[in-house]
Amino acid sequence: MRGRVFDLFKRKKESEEKIEQGLTKTRQGFFGQIASLFEMDEITDDLWDDLEALLIQADLGVETTLEVVERTRSRVYSERIKKIEAAEAVLKEELVRILRLVGSGAGEPPQLAKPLHVILVTGVNGVGKTTSIAKLASYYKELGYRVVLGAGDTFRAAGVEQLKIWGERVGVPVVSHQTGADPGAVTFDAVQAALAREADVLILDTAGRLHTKYNLMEELKKLRRVVQRLVPDGPQEVLLVMDATTGQNGLLQARHFTEAVQVTGVMLAKLDGTAKGGIVFAIARDLGLPVQYVGTGEKLGDLAEFDPEGFVDALFE
Amino acid sequence: MFDNLSDRLRLVFNKLSGKGKLTEEDVDIALREVRQALLEADVNYKVTKEFMARVRERAIGAEVLQSLTPAQQVIKIVNEELIHLLGDGEAKLQFANTPPTVIMMVGLQGSGKTTTTAKLALLLRKQGHRPLLVAADTYRPAAVDQLETLGKQLGIPVYSEGTKANPVDIAAHALKRAHEVAHTVVILDTAGRLHINEEMMGELSRMKERISPNEILLVADAMTGQDAVRAAGEFNQKLGLTGLILTKLDGDARGGAALSIRSVTGVPVKYVGVGEKADALETFHPDRLASRILGMGDMLTLIEKAQVEFDEKRAKEMEKKVRSATFNLEDFLEQLQQVKKMGPLDQILEMIPGLGSAMRAQKATVSDNELKRIEAIIRSMTPLERTSPDIIKGSRRRRIADGSGTSVQDVNMLLNQFKQMQNLMRKMSRGRIPKNIAGMMNPF
User: What strands lie across the sheet with B185-190, from one edge to the other?
Assistant: First the structure.
């Protein structure tokens, strides 16, 4: 037991390092420029314009950016802040405040429901759902849980095979049907199999779908209902995987998926590129959705728990 | 969340109209709205800045200042400049003088390369080419399977050497095979990669050197944000792109990334991906994307969408009924079913220029639940009531309300609205299109 607790702490440490690594590139990028902005001595009007430019280029969006800049500016003036470091601290606080509105417990491993914790993973096409599921499976397996995967992407050619290959690599069973099978039937079988095997966690893959496709969103709602037939309080988690390169459309994605299947958190994939993932600020601000995990690379271990404070801090260090 | 740009501009100029002559400062206020629209459409910040400088130069000229309809003039200038920047006219694929033509598909992970590769092969085969697909993505699990499956479905041969071989070798071998069996086009599906991964980018450079492709097409997701310029810029610098394919345009992303990529790399958009099916790849229309980026509605896409979903013969019959004003509730119900297939109602209405904002202005909301209620009411009518709604009097109304779980008021409202619609159709059938409707159809 004791070993487990230490493992958890170690894990947390590692994930902090990973989020750092993922963010190193970010820091050299736009946010790094913000940091260097604050290395100027005096607060001038140019500072606010530059700040606006940099936040927009980090995909925070016009509205969120204007709000952050305005709040920072008015606090800097009302608190009579003259030093640039103090202004930087205010900006950080304002950015953290947005992410903190939600998920104060983010960063903690979620409490697993009994008898079966069901995680439904959704998102638009090509965001990295299947890879993220593999990482999540590996994460839970290493914590000592029994994990089962459900291959619900029966639409894309070889979608099922892709998950099976990951299942083998992670060493967890994958419940699957043929490509073209009814995803509802696969989901039902997966839940049933996970219950029969007394698994702790079931992670359900789904086909990528644009949030504007009415029928596909209806199908997603149905998958949720199928889970509830066997696990009445499931799926306890609904994760929306989002590509860190996504622009302002990310907010629409989050809104529509939340309306359809009550998303509980965002998994921000591909943070190892040069994209900033700034759309999560708008998602937190407008929809109150927390970011739960970030994906920082192509390997199984490249998954980190999200910690709002650490996220913003790391941007400026 | 996103108001129609032309409405926003009209609002700005209306506020200014009391002061007489317009000044440069007035135009700047209006241009701020344009700038915001572009940024909200994910057009890169720096690209927006340059673009706005050009627009401003034209806008502060006589064109806008002396115009009676300055809002429309600004839109016109912005629209023209956008279309110009996106590329006037259609950009065609360059084919080799002696076949096979070699096309390399490159891009970030998840942009849709494999799907687009298959779509492009299908399109080229329809044009009389003999394509060979090459599975050069040996990294992503099951990527080779995916391309092979797609090839099988479409009846297009796929060259693969499994996942152990080197992608550069695979490409070279595939080219040799294409010569042997007289394929006219070779399309290579390469692995998705980050533009900052030097090793992976080096692999693409080596592949390019080895097979000298005629086209290197960057596949980019229409939902990409500000980072599009950086990724595309790197790909272009390392490989020398020849074109862009913008994918996932069937969603509601405004696609400003296309403008960013175009202005950073200078390469034209050659195709757009508009659906999950294999034939959902189209040639690019700069004017349509321009309206979309500006949030000006997309009538053409709406019409095309309708054409896909509606049965053409049935549509003609409907049109006849509308023209002869014999359109009844039964037909109305059928149309509702068709509309439902196209997607959520509010999104469909958003595509009609001016209508989305007109409805917002009147605080009118049309929800899909409302559609359901209308459907329930009509379904609670007898066939006779549906064809001749005039016979529906008091007791029938009560019965219909009870049967559909609605109230008599709801039934009344539906019947009244239907009557208005019939009147409108009668007028239209006499060739008179009411003014307010004609106005709605014209974005400028």
Answer: B158-159, B131-136, B185-190, B101-106, B215-221, B243-247, B269-273, B281-283
